[in-house]
Design a protein that fits this description.
Helix content is 44%, strand content 16%. By secondary structure, the protein is an alpha+beta fold. The chain has a 5-stranded antiparallel β-sheet with strand order 1-9-3-6-10. The chain starts with 14 loop residues before the first strand and ends with a helix.
């Protein structure tokens, strides 16, 4: 399974939102997995998607949400008479033959193991029989209550394990919801990256997930029972990540954070990584660097002030950490992308 892993840069690119219009060189999307949540909303055509051991048929207006760490893929639909939704007659196989004999080129823009291309939706839709919107994100990126993040993560996994059909949403189910519009707006915000784009796109993604939770409730999923079954460790982490979000500009020691959770350092570190797919130190850096990016992009504050405001020990520490994560200094990044 490791050879199917798609690296996703949760620190530098915690959300991706874009159009994908299929071309001979960029389709199918071969089997892969990652730690992000991935949502696909089909606009035109029909596709066969897989998640884990299951095969789904999607047509225009349908949506599927791929669970983190589950191998998934998207290919053309060869059997046009196949019923929409979960195909009970099939099971996915990593050895199945895909329609494209060429391995697609790597897409450098979207950090994907297979190419997913273009913001120019109107042009591409005319040229492609299959097009869809894609939203991929790290739950930690969402500027929402940490309890909700844990609740959704647990509900998604439970919903898939209880009935694999739960990750598929038909056009009829979505008819009276704003979900398609949320994805459209996310793509626009992530494309233009104007002031506050991360806050707006995060809010849109959170609202989209809440809408999916509502649909699950209508389908009879006992969400309240799933949520109440949260472990003590998860509830402790909800509080500690909220604490980090509120105190990122202060000195934070992992040992002290573990003590706040009444855990040993080693157990805290192991459980934190298992829960969030990154270390506590990496999470703190993630929060701080995002604040730095915001200040670089939208203010002309000097680096010494920014380092003090974002919890770095000094300006040198900020520059060293920033360069390690972004491949350039804060000054170079600001000149290329930020405040002029």
């Amino acid at each position: 399974m490791q050879n199917l892993f798609e690296y996703t840069d949760g620190l530098n690119q915690p959300m991706e939102a874009f159009y994908h219009a299929t071309q001979p060189w960029n389709f199918p999307i071969l089997p892969h997995w990652h730690y992000f949540i991935e949502i696909i909303y089909l606009q035109n055509g029909a596709v066969e998607a897989t998640c884990g051991d299951y095969v789904y048929t999607l047509r225009a207006g349908d949506l599927i949400i791929f669970c983190p760490q589950k191998v998934h893929s998207v290919d053309i639909l060869e059997d046009l008479n196949a019923p929409s939704g979960l195909n009970a007659a099939k099971k996915a196989s990593q050895t199945r033959i895909f329609s494209s004999v060429k391995k697609p080129k790597r897409d450098t823009q979207h950090n994907a193991i297979y190419p997913i291309a273009t913001n120019n939706s109107e042009l591409q839709e005319e040229e492609s029989a299959i097009s869809y919107r894609v939203l991929k994100f790290d739950l930690n990126f969402l500027n929402t209550n940490n309890n909700f993040k844990t609740q959704f993560s647990k509900t998604l996994l439970h919903a898939f394990e209880e009935n694999p059909e739960n990750i598929y949403f038909s056009a009829d189910m979505l008819q009276n919801t704003p979900i398609a519009g949320y994805m459209e707006d996310c793509i626009r915000e992530m494309s233009c990256q104007d002031y506050g784009y991360d806050i707006i796109s995060s809010s849109l993604a959170s609202a989209l997930l809440a809408e999916l939770m509502r649909i699950w409730r209508k389908r009879g999923l006992c969400i309240d029972e799933i949520i109440s079954d949260s472990s003590v460790g998860n509830r402790a982490f909800d509080e500690i990540t909220q604490y980090i979000d509120n105190h990122y500009n202060e000195t934070l020691q992992v040992q002290e954070l573990a003590a706040q959770c009444n855990m040993s350092y080693s157990y805290f570190a192991k459980l934190f990584r298992k829960t969030y797919n990154q270390s506590c130190k990496e999470y703190i850096e993630f929060i701080r660097i995002n604040k730095v990016l915001e200040l670089l992009r939208f203010t002309n504050l000097d680096l010494t002030y920014i380092s003090q405001e974002t919890g770095f020990a000094d300006c040198s520490h900020l520059i060293r950490t920033f360069k390690k994560k972004k491949g350039m200094t804060p000054k170079q990044w600001r000149k290329a992308y930020g405040y002029k």
